[in-house]
Amino acid sequence: MKSIRDTGYKGTDYALAELIDNSFQWGDANTVLLVIVQRKVQGKQRAAKRVDEIWVIDDGGGMTDEALNLALSFGGSGKYDDRSGIGRFGMGLPQASVSQCKQTDVWTWQKSQPENASHTYLDLKEVEDSAKKAALTVPWPTTAGSPDYTEMPDWVRDVFKEHAIPDTSMGLPVYSGTAIRWTNLDKLRWVRADAMFAHTEYLLGRVYRHFLTSDTRRRSIKVAIMEGDTLVGPGVFQDVRPNDPLYLQPASETTLEYWEAAAEDDKAPLIHITDEPPFAEHYGSRDFVIQRPDGQGASTVHARLSLARPEARPGRNPGKDTHQGRHARDNSGISVMRADRELVLEKTLAQEATDRWWGVEVAFDPCLDEVFGVTNNKQDAPYLGQALRLAREHHLPKDEAIEEGLFDEEHPIAELYDMAYQLVALVNQMKQEGKSEKQAASRARGTQPDVTNVASSVKQNRSAVTPTPGETDFADTKPDPSKAVETIQQALEEQDVPAEIRKLIIANYQRGVTVQVIERPMKQAAAFFWPDEALNLEILCLNNAHPAYESLIRPLRVSSEELERMTEDEAKGMLVQSADAMTWLLLAWSRYENEHRKSPLSRNIQEIRDGWGRRLAEYVEDQAFKAALQFDGEDETQDGEGGA
After folding, report:
1. pTM (2 decimals)?
2. At what angle do helices 602-621 and 451-463 cross, to 10 degrees?
3. Exposed, middle or buried: residue 276 (CB in 10 Å: 0-12, 13-18, 19+)?
4. Which of 563, 509, 583, 521 is nearest to 546 (CA)?
5. Which of 13, 71, 613, 639 has the fewest CB atoms within 10 Å, i.e. the most exposed one?
6. Which residues neighbour 115 within 8 Å (Cβ) at sequence distance 6 or greater?
7. Each residue of 159-211: pLDDT tens digit?
8. 516 by DSSP, 3-state: which?
9. 264 CB burial (10 A radius; 0-12, 13-18, 19+)
């Protein structure tokens, strides 16, 4: 008996999800009602409120007596290996139920009235109390009027009819549905109704988010708390809201409700945003083709990626200090979806506090169950987790991984490994891009005389001598400020500069900063940097996907908090690294020029080098540059996220 009960459900919320699976797939329900009944129970020291019953009521098609008896029997549902939807293994109802309680009652009715429901039950206490420890059996269903029939409470029938749509095709309204009651609850994860409600909505909203937001057929899950024999709370039933771990839906439509962004005035409180999502879909989203294990060709696995907008990570510790940071903590990882239902939030790649700022959804068809290693309680896809772990730890392409003996080429992991290898690379890329974008936004908001402020001052002197085409155009047309901002905004959009950084660049431009440095990933470009301009705004674009950026620049992009944690030797090492980075940049130019020493281009290259040298001299000899060297302030806006 103990082995039957210890079936590996992670908690009450996961066990309830198993029952909702049955309602949505086998019952084809539109609405599922979850009622948590709480009563005051006398403990050893004092009386306290505890969850005493849990009800799951749906408006699905109901069951025949034979189907009801089989559904409550282990492995007897007749649905084993049915891959047409979210179920498959045929053990969900009894397995989930005994993992939480000792008695499960089921009522079901088809094109009739709830008062005429058939009833049966599964009672573990009867087995425990029997002298010979009788086998676990399910009594044949009884109907209303039978001497041993257990009636369904009136309030259950009432709330069912309030939410169900009757079938009137035959004249009188008739209903179909099922009601399940758990009692003698001895293995609950949460014993108070309010705690169970909060945690259950969070999980169910994520597991069934595609069902709750479907454009073709939207389903609903509604939850109510019952104090004794009275339903309580405003509106009694509350809809389970979708919980989107990719954060691509407007916040007000999900359990997030709102997210916080910095106000124009850095000293003002954070502002609440409800009508926009805090993340944006990442361009790395893609499909993977996986061979089916049954030899019937291939199936497509869809990977959807998202990355937090820079404005959704305000301040030095947004993970702890913002509403969205705290909410995303428990949503971090790869959401593995099977038939539009989440199996597991895979945590292999979510090991750091900042991993809450990216999202990945991997969606596959049930025909790939054996490849992913789907467990019978639908809570895991272990082969994907193993493939991700091997790819993260060893950094080897598939052929080399097989040669190293990391897995056998006939094992399902071999079919998933290429996808896992790419997902590891994509997640690392998103993390670096997110860090760069946040730091760029932080620098743009900074108040110290940074390099762009100083360069803007030097630029004023130089533009009077040799203006650029943009400066000439600006001087000739003399556009009004709003027109200038519009032109610059368009140029930044063409560079795919994120909205928050565009906003800060424009704000700086309006206060006289006419030089900006932006970072954009251009993997196919050989250039490490390129100049651009929009009117009199001079733009330096750094290619943060270039190998030189990865090796020379990114290691130097550290936050003020990281600098504070450095030892003296580490700080000295970074100074050496900075000097070496500059040397490598100049060595690359030197090599390029030497290779063209006998080329017709040699003279032009030398003139470009000389001209560049003159511009550099003008910068460092300018009074604004010298004044900036005296500034010893600290940038308080760098990202110093903690582990909260």
Report:
1. 0.72
2. 110
3. middle
4. 521
5. 613
6. 144, 152, 157
7. 999 999 999 998 899 999 999 999 999 999 899 999 999 999 999 999 999 99
8. strand
9. exposed
Pick from 359, 327, 329, 496: nearest CA to 427: 359
Determine phi and psi for 508, rounding to 5 degrees.
-65, -40
DSSP sequence for 140-157: PPB-TT-TTPPPPPHHHH
Concatenated DSSP letters of 204-219: HHHHTHHHHH-SSS--
pLDDT recorded at residue 449:
46
CA atoms 193, 196, 202, 208: torsion sign: negative
Helix axes 568-595, 602-621, angle to 10 degrees: 150
The secondary structure element, H or E, covering residue 438 is helix 412-445
Residue among 194, 212, 196, 215 at smallest CA distance from 254: 212
CA dist 32 to 16, 204, 347, 545, Å?
Answer: 11, 12, 29, 48
> Rounded to 10 degrees, what is the CA torsion of 35, 38, 39, 44?
140
Distance CA 523, CA 543 (A): 8
Token digits of residue 3: 């082995």
Burial of residue 432 (number of CB atoms within 10 Å: 0-12, 13-18, 19+): middle
The gap from C-alpha 421 to its chain's centroid, in whole angstroms, comes to 19
How far apart CA 121 and CA 180 sit, in angstroms, is: 9
Residue that is written with structure tokens 């609440």 in the block:
272
User: With b meaning 16 or more CB within 10 Å and e meaning fewer, what string describes 455-468?
Assistant: bbbbbeebbeeeeb
Residue 495: phi and psi, rounded to 5, are -85, 5
Asked if residues 206 and 346 have their Cβ atoms less than 8 Å apart, the reply is no
Q: Which two three-digit tokens encode residue 319?
A: 């993970």
Q: Enumerate residues 6+ apart whose C-beta is below 8 A from 400.
A: none
Longest dimension (CA), the chain: 107
**Inter-residue contact 124 to 187 (CB < 8 Å):** no
Q: Identify whether the C-beta of residue 454 lies closer than 8 Å to the C-beta of residue 626.
A: no
Residue positions counted in the chain: 644
| Count of Cβ atoms closer than 10 Å to residue 536 Cβ | 23
Q: Which amino acid is at 594?
A: N
For the chain, report the end-to-end CA distance as a whole number of angstroms: 41
Helices 499-510 and 412-445: crossing angle, nearest 10°? 10
Collect all residues with Cβ–Cβ distance below 8 Å to 436 and sequence separation of at least 6: 519, 544, 554, 557
If you compute the radius of gyration of the chain from its CA atoms, what whole number of angstroms results?
32
Unique residue bearing structure tokens 């032109």: 487
What is the full DSSP assignment across 551-612?
IIIGGG---HHHHHH--HHHHHHHHHHHHHHHHHHHHHHHHHHHHTTTSTTHHHHHHHHHHH
308-359 pLDDT tens trace: 999 999 887 899 899 999 999 999 999 999 999 999 999 999 999 999 999 9
